[in-house]
Structure formats: C-alpha cells, structure tokens
Design goal:
The protein is an alpha/beta fold and about 230 residues long. The protein is about 30% helix and about 30% strand. The chain has a five-stranded mixed beta barrel, surrounded by four helices. Strand 6 (about 105-110), helix 3 and strand 7 form a beta-alpha-beta unit. Helix 2 (about 65-80) runs parallel beside helix 4. It is globular and about 45 Å long.
C-alpha cells in the first residue's frame, strides 16, 4: 500500500488523522498526547504516527506547507489508507480586528487565491467548506474547554510573502485569518466523500502587529491540539 509519499501499510492509519504542517509538531503530538504511539511514516521526513487518545485510535502526520503539499498527503490518506476524516491543526495570521494571538479559529469555509480547484473542471467556482459533523463537535469541545474561539471563513493563500499587500482586503468580507492549506484539504475531502476540518491558533495579527513568543506559541498550540483530540 506504500505510495510515492507515504511508506505505510493498509491499517497503519486510524480513521481520523490530525495534520499539523510541521513534522516536528506531529512528533510533539505523538510524544505528549498519544499513548502507544508508533511511527508509521517517515518518507522525506514527514513523520506520521498512530496511537491512542483516551482509548480511541488516532493518527497524526504532517502535511507540509502549502496547498500542493496538503493536496498530496490528504489525497493519499483518503484514497489509499481508508482515512475517513482529517483535522488540520495549524497556525494562522489574523486579518480580523476581533481576533487576538492565541485565539482559536474553526474554519467553516476556506476562501482561496489558488487555482487548485481548476483541476475539477467545474462550470463555476466551488466553495470549500468543512464537515458540519466535525465543526459541530469542535464547537462543543471549545465551549467545554472555555477557550476563546470564532467560527468563520479563512483565506487559504498560495503566498506567504505577498508583494501586492492585498491580504487584509479579505477581512472586509468577514474573513477571519489567513493560512495556506485548508482549501485544498476541503476540496479533496469533498471529492473523496470524506470529512475535514481546520482548527487554527492565531499566532500573530496582520491588523495590530501582535505576535506570540516561542513559549506562548507552545502553550497556545497545546490548547488547540487538546481541543482537536477531544473531538474524537
């Protein structure tokens, strides 16, 4: 069952996979939150682990940065390894003045400036949205945890460094934050008939210039990871 990017066997992945962008964050989740975690993939250093959380099987594997990378890994997990749902756990830059660093964003929809969706040859513009089942569970988990969170649109951009400085314009349409993977994940899930959700920690604000320190990022990301795991 190995693919060009995942050296694993059928059954190595749990039905639900958490996907941070960073391989080191995947290892952090496995070592600090999962029981009996075992390495199931390390091709190109993209580490994937499967273990248990409160008795439930769960996997965690990095997606890499950007929609092309997320597109590859989510496609292979959905189509070759029987993964039913992927929960992206990542960071984002706030473009809404209502968000502050460490706030949680649950991405109900993902706007994009990417041409990723052109491959589906649709006679119009597809709107990538999260699984309602996962989103509802995430809202309940966030309410139980009493964390500061918002539900809404995010922007999945192909550009980290934007020469046009146009990112903030999306905020005028109520878009909450910018990141780089969710639209591809949601489109792949829709095409495969599977479920997907993005849970983000605001690491910095493009509106106010506020940003988390390295220590604050660790704490904030841990809150997000626990929220995602508590959904399962």
């Amino acid at each position: 069952m190995a693919t060009p990017h995942i050296a694993a066997e059928k059954g190595d992945f749990a039905p639900t996979v958490l996907m941070p962008g960073d391989p080191l964050r995947a290892r952090f989740v496995a070592e600090n939150f999962l029981e009996r975690a075992r390495l199931v993939n390390d091709v190109r250093g993209v580490q994937g682990y499967t273990g248990e959380y409160k008795g439930k099987p769960v996997s965690v594997m990095a997606s890499g940065m950007g929609m092309p990378s997320m597109g590859i890994y989510s496609y292979e997990l959905f189509h070759f390894f029987d993964v039913r749902s992927i929960i992206r756990i990542g960071s984002a830059g706030a473009i809404s003045p209502d968000l502050r660093p460490r706030d949680i964003v649950l991405a109900m929809g993902a706007c994009t400036d990417s041409r990723y969706g052109a491959q589906f040859s649709l006679p119009g513009t597809f709107a990538p949205v999260a699984s309602w089942n996962l989103l509802e569970r995430a809202v309940r988990a966030a309410e139980r945890a009493k964390v500061s969170f918002k539900v809404g649109n995010v922007l999945s951009s192909d550009r980290f460094y934007d020469d046009s400085a146009s990112t903030l314009a999306w905020g005028k349409m109520g878009v909450l934050a910018v990141e780089m993977e969710s639209a591809a994940l949601y489109m792949n899930a829709a095409r495969a008939g599977r479920e997907a959700l993005t849970v983000l920690t605001v690491s910095d604000s493009l509106v106010t210039g506020e940003a988390l320190s390295a220590a604050e990022r660790q704490t904030g990301f841990s809150e997000m990871i626990k929220l995602a795991l508590d959904m399962i």
